[in-house]
Structures are given as structure tokens and as C-alpha cells.
Amino acid sequence: MQRSNGPSASYTLPAAAPWQLLVPDLWVDDLEAIDLDRLGRHGIRCLLVDIDNTLIPWGEPLPDARAYRFVERARRAGLQVVILSNARRGRRAAVAAALGVPAVRSGFKPRRSVFLAAAALVGCRPEQAAVVGDQLWTDVLGGRRAGMFTILVDPLGAEESLLTRAITRPVERAVLRWLARRGRLPAARVQARLAGRRRSVQQGRPGTGRRPG
């Protein structure tokens, strides 16, 4: 993979290993930084999108203008959006209905079957699906286990559930530091996330021919 200049610089990672289930294929600031047309040109047909701190800030009852813009951009690019979240069923249904997109009714990330069911809702095979979320342990791990392209975004805000704040994020921070120390992720990008700063970095999955971007 060639390295390019600027905020969308690409990085070549070492050969595949178990820890790479926690390495996203693409890491960007937020939904607006995703080149949806490029995903489509590389065979992606559907986006499995998390809700809290990915699509809208945690705790917001309904989508905001940013979420509507993202769904509209996806439609113009020929991509179908599916809500895939561990939020309560009523919340998933409300957000999906407001946006006019389907949602997975049951299941819990990172279970592989949940991701496969989400793609199947819109007739997509795993290799045609991209998972979009803000967490390594749910979105990236589950998507990689399902054989899907994974896109990590930085959280929209600091407000999160108690479980996420007390358990998931501390473990995630430790893993990010470990991956950065071993050259598995760009150290500057990890430091920026941990410090709450934002800078887009794109990377391709090693050992595969499908890496949008």
C-alpha cells in the first residue's frame, strides 16, 4: 500500500495476527470524514452504523441534522444504512424510524451473528458491508470477526453509559496504547484520540485486496 500525504495518509501494517481483530480498516474523525463514494467504488453496498457517540451524541433521543446528512449522503452514494446498536430496542427503533432505515431488533455486539443479520436485512454479503462505530470492543471486533470492512470514528462526546465509561473505555485505552507501542496503529493518531483531539488517518487491512481508500 502506498503512503500518501495529508490527513488521509495510509499506513502499511504487519502481517495478520489475532490482535488485528481490534485494528480498524479505516479510522477517521467522524461520519462526515468518510468518503462514501470511494467505499461504493470498492464494492461496499451497506453501512452498519452504531448510534451512541457515532451517529448522534449519547443520550440524544432522536437524530440531529448531522445524522440526516449522513444518511442522505449514503443514499446518494448508493449505500444502504442499517442501525446496529447495543442501545435499548425502543431507542434503536425510534432512531431508525426517524431516519427511514432498518435496524437490527435483537442481538448484542460483538456477536458475529448480529453483524451477519444486519447485513442480511438489506441483502448484503459480509464483504459488501462496512461497520461504522466508535468502539473497538463492539464495532471493530464484531465487524472483523464477521469478515466486514470496519470504520472507527472518534466519539462525538464525553458523555457515555456507566458501563462504557467505567470498563470499556479504560480497557480500550490500554489496548490502543499497546497497539501504538508496537507499531500496529499510528502513535500520533492514538495520542490524539486519547487527548480528545481529532485528526483523520486512514489505514488498509493487511493481507486483503479490498481496502476502500
TrEMBL record:
It comes from the Bacteria. It holds the Pfam family Hydrolase. Coiled coil: none annotated. NCBIfam families: YqeG_hyp_ppase. This is YqeG family HAD IIIA-type phosphatase.
